Fold:
Amino acid sequence: MLKFLFKGLIRDRSRSLLPVIVVMMGVMITVLLQSYMTGALGDSIETTANFTTGHVKVMTRAYSKNMSQLPIDLAIMNVDTLKKSLQTRFPAIDGTERIQFGGMLDAPDQNGETRAQGNVAGIGIDMLNSTREIDRMNLSSNLVSGKFPVTKGEIMVSDELFRKMKLKIGDEVTLISGSMYGEMSMYNFRISGTLKFGIPYLDRGTIIADIADVQAALNMENAAGEILGFFKNQYYNNQTATTIAKAFNAGEDTNDEFAPVMLPLCDMNGMGYIVAYSENIQGIILLIFIIAMSIVLWNAGLIGGLRRYGEFGLRLAIGESKNEIYRTMIAEAFLIGVIGTIFGVILGLFLSWLLQKYGFNVGEMMKDSTILMPTVLRARITAASYYIGFIPGILSTVIGAMLAGIGIYKRQTANLFKELES
Amino acid sequence: MNTNKKLNNGVLPSTIEVGEDSIVEIKNLVKNFPIGNDFFTALKGINLTFTEGEFAGLVGPSGSGKTTLLNIIGSLDVPSDGDVIVLSHSISNLTQKQAAQLRKEKLGFIFQNYNLLPVYTVYENVEFPLLLLDIGADERKKRILETLEWVGLSDKIRSRPSQLSGGECQRVAIARAMVKRPSLVLADEPTANLDSENSHNVLQTMVKLNRELKTSFIFATHDEKVIGYLRRIIRLEDGKVVDDTTKPPKSPMGDLNIPLTNTYASDTNLGGAL
Structure:
């Protein structure tokens, strides 16, 4: 009997093809939105982590309270010892010291007079000992011209600043800043290359130098503003980060301003909301789509059901009961849901893959933005991308059919039967 | 015919004793339809009995109550008062499931608009009632081919309803009603959408089936062509029986004792050898 009914279902395109397309489109959008949101939010979190916060960050207690001012006078001393201790206690964390600082870059002319100046935000990272930080910050893909520093005294500048100051690769520039102890500091660098981050805030005036050079320039021997900790699997896990931070802080003196303190990413730069949003996005998307698709499919089911009341009347006359007709409606809906969902997931994954590989460039829309987020938004296909579409795809179709089918029970048999004659 | 037989392993309730050869007994039947706070009485105390092999018609103008009466006999509606006993089962006492069981096993319906399922072939439309009865594939095929031969559509089994004429569609509908060998066929205005020639073809088919298979037919009609074929005419007016006449056999077809098998198709295709 079911085979007979499904044969009819497949032949009647308005009952099969159209609903399958509706389900497929809904599921495709669900999968695409889930992977896009996961990718976009994940990228924002990871970009923020890689450039400024790490998955966890260790600072002095005083530095953490004035973090936005990048107060290098409150930096951590004896960084080597603290880093070793950190790696011993928390092997899941890969620690790296960083110095974030502000200053002015001065470019002299042939006579040594100032030719151009620009405000800069500097980052000191380990560039000469390994490529680990270069890889983490994905700087290789941002390299526009020149090369990364290979000897002491070399510096990378953002391409935008490079062009504004009319610099050339190999030019000598002077960083004018303040040392860790408060005196004015000046240090000469040679430009080795330029970078374009795709993040307006960083493109305006960023310099990146090896941390040893920065320590020398700012008189910070064996000191660093912060130690950033990264999970070795490269993805932020809020629960683990919070647990590690609590364990670390439990052993530290809370009254000592220069005692180290560890903060998880969610407690910095207002990232808590984005992390929570990212964690709940699947549930939010599911809920929205189950409701929206149920309404759409309920409506489609009602229209289809109304059109089929004549057929139902005939089937009642031939001897089917209302329960049997209702059950076959739901079975049909389930079949349509499964088929539509499979095609929707395949299509959604394909589009997500395209978005993951090629991204969606929103750079033009974010020219004046100071938010630290990538201008190329990318989807990220996760395990959830493969199954998330099945929930709204099947559930909504069946719920829609169940709601539409209630009409069979509400109508008297003879009334349904009369539909035959209309 | 044993109309007291219990249907489908006891799904239907116990049967009621009725007169010998009686297939439908209607006692003081009243049917009201609510209209706002009031109600409209469509049937006003009908008393009728139909016996096995009847070829009877409920005749009357629109609104006289003939379709309502047919729906109640077909267990598609229930009486407001009185009782209707169909094949020894009181319609008032049947649950929806039991009513469906009665329709599935013992009743056949023929409609004005044929109501064939458009996505299925002629063969599949006729197959549908047998699927509901869980009849095996071989037996199904045998019965379908035999029934389609009766109605002269053996060469159309793979056609869809949209590829058939009105007369052919109605003959498919007859085959669908007859394929399960029902005790009683209810036909509501079966010729309303047919031209004269096709009407006669269809009616001759039903007369033959009535004669050969002893299947009872009850029509609701106001078509004179149908009335011409009826052996019993029950006239309804304003929900009451005003006349109940059984006439001697007389048909525009003449001798109807032509066997259903083999030669039937050619007979009907000739327009009934009129």
Observations:
- The interface with chain A takes residues 71, 74, 76-77, 96-97, 99-101, 103-105, 107, 109, 111-113, 115, 117, 119-120, 124, 127-129, 131-133, 176, 188 of chain B (CB under 8 Å).
